[in-house]
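Progress report, Aim 2. The chain analyzed during this reporting quarter is listed below.
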Amino acid sequence: MSPVWLVTGAAGMLGRDVLARLVGESVTAVAANRVALDIADPALVRAALEFHRPAVVVNCAAWTAVDDAESQEEAALRVNATGPEVLAAACREHGAVLLQVSTDYVFAGDAEKPYPEDAAAGPRSAYGRTKLAGERAVLDTLPDTGYVVRTAWLYGAYGPNFVRTMIKLEGVKDALDVVDDQRGQPTWTADLADRLVRLGQAASAGAVPAGIYHGTSGGQTTWFGFTREIFRLLGADPARVRPTTSDAFVRPAPRPAFSVLGHDRWAAAGMEPIRDWRAALAEAFPALLAAERRSSGDVAL
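Predicted structure tokens for the chain:
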């Protein structure tokens, strides 16, 4: 019988792609959304692992409302830190590998070159602080079987995200002003799901070192550059996208100015880092366009 995987946050954008990837690998996967499993409840988590006996747990559950976390940090902490701590304790008890998805927000965002996996953290937001606490709980509890995979600028077909928003706005706006002073790596959830599954398979075989990995696309751009590429793929004039600064969009939580992550640790896992963001976006685009048209009621696909 093949090993069982448990995926938390399974109804989310990344969770759904992880499940699809596992199905493609003929892996037995248990999907747990937030209704089915409160990851911060020790009794429920222990019962779930006792019943399903997973070899690998992939924690895609997270509080991702970055601005709301500024005024609701305790609630965000429960999901982003207490939840991973509870999962890690249960994984230790049952001998399971834990893959914890984290974020670029654990860094200050003021670097000038890609952050390596061992760079000092320095979150500037409540969201970043809560995610960093979750990372530390996993690594402290599972020094040999805990894996933190930081990602950023995620987009996919199964939820609201920047790409789908820009597709929608292109159809209703003559011009768009988009921030050009925040730099990062747009990352397709399907690409990240592939790396998570491959990392989990290697980890359960004891073939790769535990610790921190960076799961973002290669290359880098700004939100402005990202939007111009989206317009190009739509067949729209990229000149309709105009650059602006973060000062034009003041929000409760500060955004990292520099979110580019380095990928050196993938070599230790015998895997290539995720491909360049442009190649991924081009492949993902038809599904994203179809999903956005379905959600807007446009049936002429």
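Residues 92 and 142 are 7 Å apart (CA to CA). The mean pLDDT is 96. These observations will guide the mutagenesis work planned for the next reporting period.
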